[in-house]
Amino acid sequence: MKKLFFLLVTLSLTNYVQAQENLLLKDYRPESIYNTPKTTVQRAKYPVIDFHSHPYAKSEKELDEWVATMKKHNIEKSIILTYSTGKRFDSIYDMYSKYGDQIEVWCGFDYTGYNEKGWTKRAIKELERCFAKGARGVGELGDKGLGLFYSKPSEAPGLHMDDPRLQPILKRCGELGMPISVHVADPYWMYLPMNEKNDGLMNAYTWKVDTSKEGVLSHEKLLSTLSNAVKNNKGTTFIACHLANTSHDLDILGELLNQHPNLYADISARYSEVAPVPRRTKAFFEKHKDRLVYGTDMGMDASMYETTFRILESADEHFYAWELFSYHWPLNGLDLSDETLKKIYSENGRKILNR
To answer: Which pLDDT does position 5 carry in this prediction?
Structure first.
């Protein structure tokens, strides 16, 4: 009997060790065992302007369903960042503009021939054409180190936000009352070595930035290009996407906001980066509540909205949302004050849109 017992124990330990050795980090999906509150927030406490979404719906039916989801969750307006100019912008605008004030469509910049003489004037002409069509802002511009590439039909390798060729276009946006949504850099983990010390390894590896490429700007230099562009165009409103990708050190963003009164930041798609440190994040959100706007950038499912509301409104602790986020960090609610929620959800957005 003793031999059988020890045999069973040995087999059990062997299976346990093998399970540990064979489990890959990418397959690790912990579930919280803590008996803590689990708040469901199906509708935002106050009306919301979503400053960071994209043309996810590819048919009238999908768009109808998405709009119904928006209304159900108290999203009073969604900003659709198309990256686009020309026929592609026109096509998206024609489909999405049918929903009136529920949806606002923004265009991109046309970088075609950006290294050629006269490009700036041509780009301004296309910007003005998109404005006449109905674009009321620009975005999402994007530079992760090699130049602005979030635009269709053309990318602009080597062209950064503070390039002199770009400044007249940024200025014209201000004259037209078109805010500019800008994505510079990526979360800091994407720039660190992909090894056992990288705190956000799994997500970092997926989006890693190859800093060995010739001409690639560092995280710090990319933020400097944004700062320079904002400083050089005081009549233009800028929105730094994703908390300017400073979730690892929000003091960096705080300093940028202090320096530039025409700069705001959206909180889109960085919930999983800031929710693991709720006290630090809440203090920052409360301090800079006049300069932050809500955003998603995570699709159009109802559960996506509900997760963002849970993080912003509840005091829930140690929970996961694997369907949205791939870090191995538990999330926590920020339990923001009503005043801060109102400002982030829509009051700041109405100032930016001036309508």
So the answer is: 45
